[in-house]
Design goal:
By secondary structure, the chain is α+β, with helices and mostly antiparallel strands. The chain is built from five helices and six strands, in the order ααααββαββββ. The chain has two domains: 36 residues; 147 residues, Roll (Thiol Ester Dehydrase, Chain A). A six-stranded antiparallel sheet has the order 1-2-4-5-6-3, with helices on one face. The chain is globular and about 80 Å long. Its EC number is 4.2.1.59.
Length: 241
C-alpha cells in the first residue's frame, strides 16, 4: 500500500460503524505517524470499549435493582417487632463461644477484653465475632469527651484478639497453655468511625500458620450495619516461648 492512497483509505474507514474493529497491515513507515490514522484508531477502539462497559454496567445495576425490589415486596407486609430484631441480632451458627469460654482462651480482662462473643468459627480457617460498643466504655472518657469515637488502635486490637482465639483453638494449639503475641500489622484502612451503640461485627481469616516457628498470619475486616469500617490486609502473631 502506498501513502498516496491513504486519504482514500480514511474515507472508506469512516463509513464503517463506530464499534467496528479495523486491522491494517502496511509497509509504509510514515503511515503510523499520520494524525488521521491515530485519531481514527483511538476513536474506534474507545467506542467499542465504552459500549461494552456501558452494557455490562446497565446489566449489573438492573440486577441489583431487581433484587432490592423483590426484598421490599417480600417484607412490605411483615411487622417488625422486638422479637424479630432479637432473632436477627442473636444470629447463631451452632458453634458460638460465649464470654466465659472466651476468658478461658484469652488472658485479657476488663477493660481490655474487646470480644464479647464468637458467633462462627471454622478451625484453622475463619472466625466471626462481635463487640457491643457501649457508651460506658472506659476509653470514651478521653476519646473524646465532646464526641465519643472508638480509637482505631482498639478496633485493630479487637480484631487481633479475635484472631488470637482462632489461633489458640486450632488443632495444633487446642488444650495447650499457649499465648500468641501481636507481632505486626500491615495494610490498615479505616472507612468510618465507630461510636457508642454500634455493634462491631469482626471477621478474621487465617492466611498461614507455621507450627515449627510459632508464627501465624491473618487478615481481618470489621463491619457496622453492613458497611466496612476497618480492613487489615495482614496481621502477624508470634507464639510466646
Amino acid at each position: 500500500m502506498k501513502c498516496a492512497y491513504f486519504p482514500h483509505l480514511l474515507f472508506l474507514l469512516s463509513l464503517l460503524p463506530p464499534f467496528a474493529t479495523v486491522a491494517l497491515r502496511t509497509t509504509c513507515l510514515d503511515m503510523q505517524k499520520h494524525k488521521g490514522y491515530q485519531f481514527l484508531t483511538r476513536r474506534v477502539v474507545f467506542s467499542s470499549q465504552k459500549r461494552s462497559s456501558g452494557e455490562k454496567y446497565k446489566q449489573r445495576i438492573g440486577k441489583k435493582l431487581k433484587e432490592k425490589l423483590c426484598a421490599v415486596e417480600e417484607n412490605k407486609n411483615k411487622e417488625i417487632d422486638g422479637k424479630y430484631i432479637s432473632f436477627v441480632m442473636s444470629y447463631d451458627t451452632g458453634d458460638t463461644i460465649n464470654i466465659e469460654e472466651i476468658k478461658n482462651v484469652l488472658p485479657h480482662r476488663y477493660p481490655f477484653l474487646l470480644v464479647d462473643k464468637v458467633i462462627h468459627i471454622e478451625r484453622n480457617k475463619k472466625i466471626i465475632g462481635i463487640k457491643q460498643v457501649s457508651a460506658n466504655e472506659e476509653f470514651f472518657n478521653g476519646h473524646f469527651p465532646a464526641k465519643a469515637i472508638m480509637p482505631g488502635v482498639l478496633q485493630i486490637e479487637a480484631l487481633a484478639q479475635l484472631g488470637g482465639i482462632l489461633c489458640l483453638t486450632n488443632e495444633e494449639n487446642r488444650g495447650k497453655d499457649n499465648l500468641f503475641l501481636f507481632a505486626g500489622v500491615d495494610g490498615v484502612r479505616w472507612k468510618k468511625p465507630v461510636v457508642p451503640g454500634d455493634t462491631l461485627v469482626m471477621e478474621v481469616e487465617q492466611i498461614s500458620f507455621k507450627p515449627t516457628l510459632g508464627v501465624a498470619k491473618l487478615r481481618g475486616c470489621a463491619y457496622v450495619g453492613g458497611h466496612v469500617i476497618l480492613k487489615v490486609a495482614e496481621m502477624t502473631f508470634a507464639l510466646a516461648r
